[in-house]
Structure formats: structure tokens, C-alpha cells
Design the sequence.
């Protein structure tokens, strides 16, 4: 027993260290959002952050993002190459995360990245090569474009693994941006074989517009029906899916038009300019609170010592005792159910005995921010002529992130709830024992002793069972693209975001369009328009 204070102090020290680096990462995100890339890099390159072995992947991708936005593409590739190698090593671990979460908290594991995050590593690697090549000599151009093609192939190989793992599920498993960027890279190289590959990729995109993006309200007004019927789509023809489950939005129509234009440009072999705009920032991952009913936990006890202690007290006695020491009552916890949250109440009314006391536990979530802003770029020549270029969203990164985190949380919710709940149940049993021991001193003092025991036990569980909210939070909310035929020359570039009667304008500096080869223009707008209505976190499929 004398070792407990020492262990508790070590736990507090570990928590303090973790909180310190977490704060540094948050400060770096704030610097990044202001466009102060030098200060953001300085914070993330500090010894405290770099020495966190379990968060090395996050550090690498964050530093890669900063270098990319600062225009230091070769430096960015150094970070992202390391990140890709590390992600490959950790990926087999991430596949077993669902099972591992039943035993230990995710925060104790090395962060392996989610599918959409690993996919974005390849996006930045390909973009870095393209931007390096675009600014280089003819020899450097060929080398960089060839390297970009290799990145695209590696990207598709990774996505094939994801497709196999997530087959039949309405989650991230393919990427329209990967196909479109890949097609453009093959067009840049321009061999007969590469041009044929580009043609196939554009054909693939037309089906992916439905299969990959129609699950989101930004692209499909019937997104809910689409997700509900998704598991049966392998039995249906694509035309039937479009007819029954697709009500295309403006985002869908613009993307479909962009694909058609790109395919025609391939056939005509034009010197069109590829325009890419990364906009906004993905919301920070946060905690979402769930509850698990006490009777469910009692039914799940496997430890013989805990089982004997609970049997000696009695289920009814514990249910009646818990509210007296401040454990909240869950209004609709159901016998036999696992858990509920405030947006996913069980519909069956509980029995009188299990009406019931429940314990809270937390799982990660990423808020859904509506993709409701249309962006366009304005090229203004030195003579004052303006060319407006509407953009099509090709990757709603935030939507994919929110959906994948939701699916992962749903997959581990039952096991996590039981694991964490049993820890709380042990604390409740200890509190009851303290109450009985102090009963001779009077009811008031007995309740105080029980409350003190419960609070101490709860603090330890809370400290070790926080939701894993680590994430690559420097990613854009959306990636948009288009192609435009624009004469060679120097232009002042402006981005305009439009939502209804509101609009926002951002100067993006000067850009030069050359007549040497196909041109690429890429910019980032860090501004996030205010959300009109709070997004509703949908239930994570919990039963």
C-alpha cells in the first residue's frame, strides 16, 4: 500500500508532461491558422515534442504540412517520406486497434494514423513533387513528374488495401482527388501508355462520384438513404443507385462537369492549367460522452473477486447506493443494452430495477462542419482583365474524417464501455465497503467516507481513460480543383468564398502562367467561415 502514493505521483507527472506537449501542439495549430509557419515549426520542432516517440507520426506530418504551406517542398518531402515509412510500419498495428482498445486505452499506443490521414501523406508527396518540377529546369521537371507518378502509384496501392479492408462499408476507402491528380500526372508525362491510364482514371472517377461522395449531404440530398442502403449496392447497377439514391447538389454537378472538361482536355491535348485550392482547417478532434448501464456491467463481470464482492452487496443495493454518492442516474438505460448517448437514446423503457445508474466514458469524434461554401479563383492580368474560375470540391476531408472517427468509435464502443465501466464499478464497490465500515460513526460520516473513496477512484480512472483526441489537425477542410485555359502571363490571384449572400475575399499573391508545359497553381486559404447552424453529431451506431 505504501507504493500507491509514489505510483500516483508518477501518473500525475506523466499526465502533466502529456498536457504540456498537447498545449504546445495546440499553440502550433493556432500559429499555423494565422499563417505564422515559422513559429508553428519552431514549437513542433522543440525537444519536448520531438522526443514523444508515440506521437512521432503526428509530429512528422505536422512539420511536413508546415513546410509545404511555406513553399519549402523539398523539406516537406523529407518529413512526409519519413511519415510514409513510419505509417507503413504502424499500419498492421492500427488494424488491430479495435481489439487492443478492449484492453488498454488508445492514448498509451503509438499513434498510427487513420486511413484518411495516411492517404493525405501521399497527396502531399505528389503535390510537393509537382510543385518542385513546375519551378525547375526541363531536366528537373521530368525527374519530378516521374517521381510524382511513383507517388500516385504508391497512393493507389495504399488505397487498394483500404478498399479491401472496408469493402461494403460507407466509409473512406477511395479518393476522387487521387484519381484526378493521378490522371493529370499521367497527362504531364504524356506517353501513349500514360495517356491511356489517364483515360481509365477519368472513367473510374465517374463511378466514384457516386460510390465515394454521394454518402455526404454536400453532394447528395438523399445522403441518409444512400448510407442506409449502401450494404446492398453490390447487388445493384450504378444507374439504379443513381436513380434511387442520388439527388445531386451543386457540388456534385460542378465536380461532374470538371471531370468531363478534364477528359476532353486529355483528348485534345490542351495546355490547360490545373488549379488546386485547399481551404479551411479540419476541426480539432474532441471527446464525446457515453454511458454504460450498471446492470450491463454486472452481467459482464469476469473477475471472480469482483463478482463475489458484487454478489455480497447485491445489484439492487448498489443501484440504490450509487446516487447517494453523486453517481448520476441515466434516465433511459435499458437492461441488456450496452450504452447510450444524448443523441441516441434507447427506445425501450427500462425495468424498475435498472432504470438505471450508469457510468460515463468518452470516445473521440470530429465535428461535422457543413461543406456549404463555394470557392472560385479570380486571375487578374496586369492589363486589368479578369478571369473567374469556379472550383469543384474533390475531397471533403472533414466529412471523411468525421465519418471514419465515428465508425472507429462505434466499432470499439461496446468493449470500451465495458472495460472502462468495470473500473468504475470497482470504485463503486470500494465506496460501498467504506460506507459500511464507517456506518457506526453515523450516516453523515459514512456517506462522506464513501464519497471520498469514490472520488479518488474516479479520478484515477478519468486520468487513464481519456478519449484519444490525437489527430493531424492541420489538414484542410476541403480540397478543390479545376482546369482552365488561360493565356501565358503574370496574374494577381484572388480567392472568393461564397455562401448565399455572404462572401469572403482573400489575396493569394502573384502567379505566372508559362507556355512551356501544362501549368499547376496551388494555394491554401486558412480561413474558416462561421458555421450557420451547430452540426448535430450523429450516433456512432451504438446499440
Sequence:
Amino acid at each position: 500500500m505504501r507504493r500507491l502514493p509514489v505510483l500516483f505521483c508518477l501518473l500525475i507527472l506523466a499526465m502533466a508532461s502529456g498536457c504540456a506537449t498537447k498545449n504546445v501542439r495546440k499553440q502550433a495549430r493556432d500559429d499555423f491558422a494565422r499563417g505564422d509557419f515559422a513559429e508553428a515549426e519552431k514549437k513542433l520542432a522543440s525537444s519536448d515534442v520531438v522526443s514523444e516517440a508515440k506521437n512521432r507520426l503526428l509530429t512528422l506530418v505536422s512539420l511536413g504540412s508546415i513546410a509545404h504551406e511555406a513553399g519549402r517542398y523539398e523539406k516537406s518531402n523529407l518529413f512526409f517520406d519519413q511519415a510514409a515509412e513510419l505509417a507503413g510500419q504502424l499500419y498492421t498495428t492500427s488494424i488491430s486497434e479495435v481489439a487492443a482498445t478492449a484492453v488498454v486505452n488508445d492514448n498509451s499506443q503509438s499513434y498510427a494514423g487513420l486511413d484518411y490521414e495516411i492517404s493525405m501523406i501521399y497527396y502531399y508527396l505528389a503535390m510537393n513533387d509537382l510543385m518542385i518540377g513546375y519551378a525547375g529546369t526541363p531536366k528537373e521537371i521530368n525527374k519530378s513528374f516521374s517521381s510524382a507518378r511513383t507517388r500516385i502509384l504508391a497512393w493507389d496501392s495504399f488505397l487498394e488495401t483500404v478498399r479491401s479492408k472496408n469493402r461494403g462499408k460507407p466509409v473512406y476507402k477511395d479518393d476522387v482527388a487521387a484519381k484526378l491528380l493521378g490522371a493529370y500526372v499521367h497527362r504531364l508525362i504524356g506517353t501513349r501508355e500514360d495517356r491511356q491510364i489517364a483515360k481509365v482514371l477519368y472513367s473510374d472517377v465517374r463511378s466514384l462520384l457516386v460510390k465515394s461522395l454521394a454518402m455526404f449531404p454536400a453532394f447528395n440530398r438523399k445522403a441518409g438513404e444512400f448510407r442506409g442502403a449502401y450494404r446492398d449496392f453490390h447487388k445493384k447497377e450504378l444507374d439504379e443507385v443513381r436513380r434511387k439514391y442520388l439527388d445531386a447538389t451543386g457540388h456534385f454537378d460542378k465536380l461532374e462537369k470538371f471531370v468531363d472538361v478534364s477528359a476532353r482536355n486529355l483528348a485534345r491535348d490542351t495546355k490547360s492549367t490545373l488549379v488546386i485550392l485547399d481551404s479551411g482547417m479540419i476541426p480539432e478532434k474532441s471527446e464525446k460522452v457515453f454511458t454504460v448501464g450498471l446492470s450491463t456491467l454486472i452481467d459482464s463481470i469476469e473477475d471472480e473477486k469482483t463478482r463475489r464482492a458484487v454478489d455480497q452487496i447485491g445489484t439492487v443495493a448498489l443501484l440504490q447506493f450509487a446516487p447517494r454518492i453523486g453517481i448520476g442516474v441515466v434516465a433511459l438505460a435499458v437492461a441488456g443494452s450496452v450504452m447510450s448517448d444524448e443523441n441516441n437514446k434507447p427506445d425501450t423503457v427500462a425495468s424498475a430495477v435498472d432504470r438505471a445508474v450508469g457510468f460515463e466514458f468518452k470516445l473521440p469524434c470530429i465535428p461535422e462542419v457543413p461543406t456549404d461554401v463555394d470557392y472560385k479563383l479570380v486571375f487578374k492580368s496586369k492589363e486589368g482583365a479578369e478571369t473567374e474560375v469556379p472550383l469543384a470540391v474533390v475531397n471533403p476531408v472533414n466529412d471523411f474524417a468525421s465519418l471514419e472517427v465515428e465508425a472507429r468509435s462505434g466499432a470499439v464502443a461496446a468493449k470500451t464501455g465495458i472495460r472502462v465501466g468495470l473500473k468504475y464499478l470497482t470504485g463503486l464497490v470500494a465506496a460501498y465497503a467504506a460506507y459500511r465500515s464507517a456506518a457506526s460513526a453515523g450516516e453523515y460520516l459514512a456517506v462522506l467516507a464513501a464519497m471520498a473513496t469514490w472520488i479518488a477512484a474516479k479520478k484515477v480512472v478519468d486520468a487513464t481513460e481519456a478519449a484519444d483526441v490525437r489527430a493531424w489537425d492541420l489538414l484542410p477542410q476541403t480540397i478543390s480543383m479545376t482546369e482552365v485555359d488561360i493565356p501565358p502571363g503574370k496574374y494577381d490571384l484572388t480567392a472568393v468564398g461564397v455562401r448565399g449572400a455572404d462572401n469572403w475575399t482573400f489575396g493569394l499573391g502573384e502567379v505566372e502562367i508559362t507556355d512551356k508545359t501544362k501549368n499547376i497553381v496551388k494555394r491554401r486559404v486558412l480561413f474558416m467561415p462561421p458555421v450557420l447552424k451547430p452540426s448535430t453529431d450523429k450516433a456512432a451506431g451504438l446499440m
